[in-house]
Design goal:
The complex is a heterotrimer of chains A (227), B (283) and C (256). Chain A has 227 residues and is an alpha/beta fold. Chain A is 36% helix and 28% strand. In chain A, the strands form two sheets. In chain A, strands 6-7-8-3-9 form a five-stranded parallel β-sheet, with helices on both faces. In chain A, strands 2-1-4-5 form a four-stranded antiparallel β-sheet, covered by helices on one side. The model of chain A has no long low-confidence stretch (mean pLDDT 93). Chain B is α/β, with parallel strands linked by helices and 283 residues long. Chain B has two domains: 211 residues, Rossmann fold (3-Layer(aba) Sandwich); 48 residues. Helices cover 28% and strands 18% of the residues of chain B. Chain B contains seven helices and twelve strands. In chain B, helix 1 packs across helix 2. Chain C has a domain of 67 residues. In chain C, the strands form two sheets. Chain C has a six-stranded mixed β-sheet with strand order 6-7-8-3-9-10, with helices on both faces. In chain C, helix 4 crosses helix 5 and helix 5 packs across helix 6. Classes of the chains: A alpha/beta (227), B alpha/beta (283), C alpha/beta (256). Chains B and C meet through helix 5 of B and helix 2, helix 4 and helix 5 of C.
């Protein structure tokens, strides 16, 4: 088994300077390991810091202490200490992220939003668009929407574009933050399929799943967090 | 000849002439480089050749023979009065014959008769700075000259071609002197540009209002700027001079009546006259 | 591989007043760095010092020249510095009128840099100018028009074409979308994003607009009172700001 993510003694406290320097501790001494081919679910009540931990793994949130080692190019990179350039490389080739909401870019059509992670690692335009088209049809986004910018899409459509984008480049590590929150049953089933497929391809996944059905269908293991 | 009383030889005082000669020496040493000099008030307005007159006054000696032309003609007001000015203040001989003159002061032309070694041609210059049209700052144009940073000069030629299909600049056409300094040849027609290249005569340029002197020493390379696919070309006329029949000289259009009548004649009056004299003699 | 730009201890004082103080960072090929902060925070002073237009009071700016590797740009001679500025670098001014020649045609504006580095074939210069106009989405039928007849967004795109024609490796941009309508801004941002990615350009973008920074920059430098108070990955700085000033800046943005 290959450890794809190793987290040691991670702690995070938000300090709100604009509100008199109030300190909000989120979690402390979090440790976990994720192996290739498994899907670890972060579990716990709301406010337990699941999303924050996920964001720390992606380098979007800076922890106060501890280490986050991510498997990249055959070595472990400590995301908590890596410089921006390194984090960008890790994100390009080793670690994907599906956020709760799509951050739409003006004027860029849905097809290219999904193809972008592939373009970033040098996949030719045609091939990248072809893969993007497969994912979009799998997630049941009507073809007439592909050439439009997702800013005007419904919440559910935006989220499916977001999921397609996250799965496009087949990163060895994928982080999922409530990917199915605004989806109906059929689309949820498609996402479950995608996750199961990723596991079978020996990719490592970490997720926060609000939905019991999804969690039970995809989780290899639970990592329980207390508020 | 009668000289005016109370003036120094050639009007300017000796210190001023020394200052001008020092500027000329520097200009000759750095072909095409504009040397600042302390331009004096002259007894004629700016734009009438104050720069050229000061250069001529700086170099003229009692044995010199002076020719002055304006647009190629020896008999226009400006040419006549400058000739008379030196005749009266220096007592020197004047002439209208190109090959006879030792100094030729000119506005807007180079004579058709080829110049020879030992002669000096003095150009009257209104605006000496070739880069001025696109760069108004003197500090910047000086820096551009220092660094031979002349690429943008082609922007002007580019604009010509884009707008008219060819380089439409016809006079004061920019040249590169000795493959180093960009220079304005003064408003001579570009027809005359090739005559500047490796000319055996010394070519001096004086700008009175702008207080600059520059020079092209004998036998110096003078190249007109152009593009590979739009090479430099001079004007051509479909007809010959109506008076002397020359097909090789620069022609002026002269309107002869108010019914549209016109003729083309040599702008160089001396050249035209010599040819007519020779034809007459042959007949 | 070495950084494209290596900056250390960069300080610029205006008498007693601090323009920028003790700034240091490395910029790598293909990296886009945003400098954010409010007006008067020293962003533009810093940009001018970095782009060889304002000599710093102390500190060094070294650029990875093609011939000799990292070289202090203020120690090299003026001819080399000028050559650098018109070949390897691009400078996009906030007001396109500062970066364009308003009296000559769009084609000549784009072709100027080519002529400045020795191009002497009219046909080829014109063809390249047309190609770049197309790249920045300006109708090539307007190649002979004066910029005076262009809209604000077109002028900014023309300025970008003029800078990119020599394939620079590093572009400095000062509020590239400032003064444009939002819809025009979106188009320009999209264009800049595409060009930066396709050409592998490194860029330093000064902006007070955090949305612009998020869209264009890989990493951010937050300035306050001439000093850098926070740096990091763009989304990390904006989503999890640590310094009190950055928190204030992020929380002050109106979310439409």
């Amino acid at each position: 088994m290959t450890a794809m993510i190793e987290v040691d003694d991670l702690s995070k406290t938000y300090v709100l300077h604009t509100q008199g320097g109030v300190e909000i501790p989120v979690f402390a001494d979090a440790s976990l390991t994720v192996e290739a081919g498994e899907c670890l679910t972060l579990h716990g009540p709301s406010g337990a810091g699941k999303s924050t931990l996920l964001r720390c793994l992606y380098g979007n949130c800076k922890p106060n202490g501890g280490a986050i080692r991510i498997h990249h190019d055959g070595a472990m990179v400590d995301i908590a200490r890596a410089d921006p350039r390194q984090v960008i490389e890790v994100r390009k080739r080793s670690m994907g992220y599906v956020s709760q909401f799509l951050r739409a870019i003006p004027r860029v059509p849905a097809l290219d939003v999904v193809a972008e992670p592939l373009r970033a690692i040098g996949v030719p335009l045609d091939q990248a668009r072809q893969r993007a088209a497969e994912l979009l049809s799998r997630l049941r986004i009507p073809e007439r929407l592909w050439s439009l910018a997702p800013a005007t899409f419904s919440g559910g459509e935006q989220q499916r574009v977001n999921i397609a984008r996250g799965f496009a480049a087949r990163h060895p590590i994928l982080l999922l933050d409530e990917p199915t929150a605004s989806l109906d049953a059929e689309n949820r089933a498609q996402v479950i399929d995608l996750i199961v497929e990723a596991k079978s391809e020996k990719r490592a996944l970490v997720g926060v799943f609000h939905d019991d059905e999804v969690r039970e269908a995809v989780s290899t293991r639970l990592h329980t967090m207390r508020g | 000849m009668n000289t005016s009383q109370g003036y120094n030889f050639a009007y300017l005082d000796e210190q001023t002439k020394r200052m001008i000669r020092r500027a000329i020496l520097k200009a000759v040493a750095i072909p095409g480089y504009q040397v600042p000099f302390g331009s004096r008030e002259m007894p004629l307005p700016y734009g009438w050749g104050t720069g050229g007159i000061q250069v001529t006054a700086g170099i003229i000696g009692p044995d010199d023979i002076l020719k002055v032309i304006d647009q190629g003609a020896d008999d226009t007001t400006n040419a006549v009065s400058i000739r008379r000015f030196f005749a009266r203040t220096a007592g020197i001989r004047t002439t209208s014959r190109t090959e006879e003159a030792t100094i030729i002061q000119t506005r807007h032309r180079i004579p058709e008769t080829p110049l020879s070694a030992g002669q000096t041609i003095v150009y009257q210059v209104p605006t000496p700075e070739p880069l001025r049209w696109l760069e108004p700052r003197e500090t910047e144009t000086r820096k551009m000259h220092a660094l031979a940073d002349y690429g943008i000069m082609h922007v002007k030629l580019y604009e010509d071609i884009a707008r008219f299909g060819r380089i439409s600049t016809t006079y004061d056409y920019p040249v590169l002197v000795d493959d180093r300094y960009l220079m304005r040849p003064s408003p001579i027609p570009k027809f005359d540009n090739p005559k500047m290249h490796r000319n055996p005569a010394l070519q001096l340029f004086g700008a009175g209002r702008e207080k600059r002197i520059y020079a092209v020493p004998p036998w110096t390379s003078v190249r007109s700027l152009d593009f590979e696919d739009h090479p430099f070309e001079v004007q051509k006329w479909s007809q010959a001079c109506a008076l002397c029949g020359s097909t090789e000289s620069f022609l002026d259009e002269v309107v002869t009546d108010d019914k549209g009548g016109r003729m083309f004649v040599c702008s160089d009056t001396d050249y035209c006259q010599r040819r007519r004299d020779a034809k007459e003699a042959a007949e | 591989m070495s950084p494209l730009l290596q900056v250390s201890g960069l300080t610029r004082l205006y008498g007693d007043r601090v323009g920028c103080k003790d700034v240091g960072f490395e910029l790598w090929p293909g990296e886009v760095m945003g400098i954010v902060g409010e007006s008067g925070s020293g962003k533009t002073t810093l940009l001018n010092c970095l782009s060889a237009r304002l000599e710093p009071t102390s500190g060094t700016v070294a650029y990875d020249t093609r011939e000799e590797g990292l070289t202090d740009i203020y120690a090299m001679g003026e001819p080399r510095r000028r050559m650098l500025m018109r070949t390897d670098w691009g400078i996009v001014h906030q007001n396109p009128r500062d970066g364009l020649r308003m009296g000559v045609s769009a084609g000549a504006n784009v072709g100027e840099r080519l002529m400045a580095v020795g191009a002497r074939h009219y046909g080829r210069i014109r063809a390249q100018a047309a190609e770049w106009l197309e790249q920045v989405e300006i109708d090539t039928g307007r190649i002979d028009d004066l910029p005076l007849t262009f809209s604000g967004g077109m002028l900014q795109r023309l300025q970008i074409a003029r800078n990119l024609v020599t394939h620079p490796r590093l572009v400095f941009m000062d509020e590239p979308t400032g003064g444009l309508d939002v819809s025009v801004q979106a188009r320009l941002l999209d264009l800049l994003r595409r060009l930066v990615t396709d050409l592998g350009l490194a860029a330093i973008v000064v902006t007070h607009d955090l949305a612009v920074a998020r869209l264009l920059a890989h990493r951010l430098m937050v300035m306050q009172g001439g000093e850098v108070v926070e740096t990091g990955l763009t989304d990390q700085v904006l989503d999890d700001p640590h310094h009190p000033y950055t928190q204030l800046l992020v929380s002050s943005v109106l979310q439409p």
